[in-house]
Amino acid sequence: MNEIIKAHIALSISGLIFGLNYWIAKGLMPEPLDPRQIVFIRVFIAAILFWIIAWFIKREPVKIRDLGLIVLSSMLGVSINQLFFFEGLNLTTPVDAAIIHTTSPILVLLFATWIIKEKITWTNVLGIIIGASGAVLLILSGLNGDFPEGNIRGNLFILVNNTAYALYLVLIKPVMQKYHPITVMKWLFVFGLVSTAPFTLHSMKGLDYHVFSGYVLFAMIFVVLGTTMLAYLLTIYGLKFLKASVTGYYIYLQPIIAAIIGLIWFGEIFTLGKGLAAICIFAGVYLVNLKSTTIKVN
Questions:
Q1: What distances in angstroms separate CA 297 from CA 115, 116, 118, 121, one per listed residue?
Q2: What Rg value do the Cα atoms of the chain yield, rounded?
Q3: Any idea what the Cα angle at residue 13 is, between residues 269 and 38, rounded to 5°?
């Protein structure tokens, strides 16, 4: 089996892990675990694991001038990202969250154009408008055509989570080019632990440690090792042999997997509003990835 096929398999597994994560993480909230308890446990364990891995794989110093950008990226990619994801997922449905996350390429393009002055085309602009319309439609779309307050707020939280992560991807890129990925990740999660602790540590006081058995233990292992560690490494492997644009398309596996799981096992209702929103978002992302007449950004 050649490396290209292996890369596609790796990205497929990564997409499956992320698709499953929506439902597995959702099953932990609000009982037996609070969203903030999950965030603290996940960030704490991930920080320890990345430091251990870095000790054996790559030990390199980080320049002081790069620490400021790493701290900012950590606040976006770890703190805001994780807090708003789990709080949002607690309030909305896994399918809604997965579809909103497909707006990531659109947001990355916007931030890349604004911050690092990447070129943007008229086709890209049309894609941004259509994709944004789909995101707004989904945020306003509730279960069974209703508009429950929790679902709207949850979708907004997921949008904040996705926006913070997209900005993080743009800001962390130059740092990733200077250092080994494991080096960057260990510092991201250490600073992430420091910045999330004020919002999450107090929630650990009410934690009943006896709940960590059976499904809860499996789910937490999956969330920490599966989505934080394994899926990341599989994505990095895929990037090594495939173009970044090809790798990006595997994000579309997530809402498909989440929707299939929801329809079969959890009685999820995929409404017309959600379908139209998904079509708009997918069409928008497709247009964002097309090349056409370039708009100059000063």
A1: 10, 10, 8, 10
A2: 19
A3: 65
Phi, psi of 118 (to 5 degrees): -70, 150
Cβ–Cβ < 8 Å for 224, 43: no
Higher local confidence (pLDDT), 256 or 69: 69
Inter-residue contact 270 to 86 (CB < 8 Å): no
Task: From 9, 13, 77, 53, select the one nearest 231 (Cα to Cα).
Answer: 13
Cα 240 to Cα 86, 161, 162, 172, 233, distances in angstroms: 30, 27, 24, 18, 11
pLDDT on residue 298? 35
Residue whose token pair is 């309030």 = 91
Say if CB 239 and CB 78 are below 8 A apart.
no
Model pLDDT for residues 146-184, shown as the tens digit of each residue? 444 557 888 889 999 988 988 887 787 778 778 887 888
Residues 143/93, Cβ–Cβ less than 8 Å = yes
| Number of Cβ atoms within 10 Å of the Cβ of 16 | 17
Handedness of CA 28, 234, 288, 74 (dihedral sign): positive
Q: Where are the alpha helices (DSSP H) in the chain?
A: 3-26, 35-57, 64-74, 81-91, 94-101, 104-115, 122-140, 149-178, 181-200, 215-221, 231-241, 244-249, 253-265, 272-288
Q: Where are the domains of the chain?
A: 3-93+148-267
pTM for the model: 0.77
